[in-house]
Amino acid sequence: TQLLEQSPQFLSIQEGENLTVYCNSSSVFSSLQWYRQEPGEGPVLLVTVVTGGEVKKLKRLTFQFGDARKDSSLHITAAQPGDTGLYLCGPGKLIFGQGTTLQVKP
Amino acid sequence: EPEVTQTPSHQVTQMGQEVILRCVPISNHLYFYWYRQILGQKVEFLVSFYNNEISEKSEIFDDQFSVERPDGSNFTLKIRSTKLEDSAMYFCASSETGQVEFFGPGTRLTVL
Fold this sequence. Notes:
Chain A has 106 residues and is mainly β. Chain A has strands spanning 5-7, 10-14, 19-24, 32-37, 44-49, 55-58, 61-65, 71-76, 85-90, 100-105. Chain B has a single domain (5-111), classed as Immunoglobulins (Immunoglobulin-like).
């Protein structure tokens, strides 16, 4: 059974700060998706990483896939209140991590 | 921009009743999924559907659940005899590629 651990579970920061959240597993993934979910809504796909060591940028968000394709990180630069939400990672359709709840205070 | 839609947005039912949750996937997508998320918990995979049949299902998707694509546009999830623990948000998703790309806004199911 594939297990995904996301950390931290909760993060509360001030606007303008930087942060990194992590998605770790003991399994190797062929790809990994990151999503953001706001309360009462469905997850929204942010990015898919496929190649070990890959880095993808989406404005202030930087996603990295580990060389061994077992872990990934999401770094947000100068966080904004609009970044508030639950960040989920998952290797495809079958499983998701429990998510990191991010709160960015103005 | 194309989107997945779901109806109703909120369904309240009595324990033991049947419910049908409806989804309209994005029109050219071939892969369809149902997930559920119990309040405060992680998103859990229920079932995937491709080429008019179930391609994968989880342990949660037992005999009380069924899916159907009755008319080529709607994709439904039926829960035959609801239990209290079925209360959750149910998300439909669709995809062109087999990677889960687009989620609907969800149906909140409350079983009393």
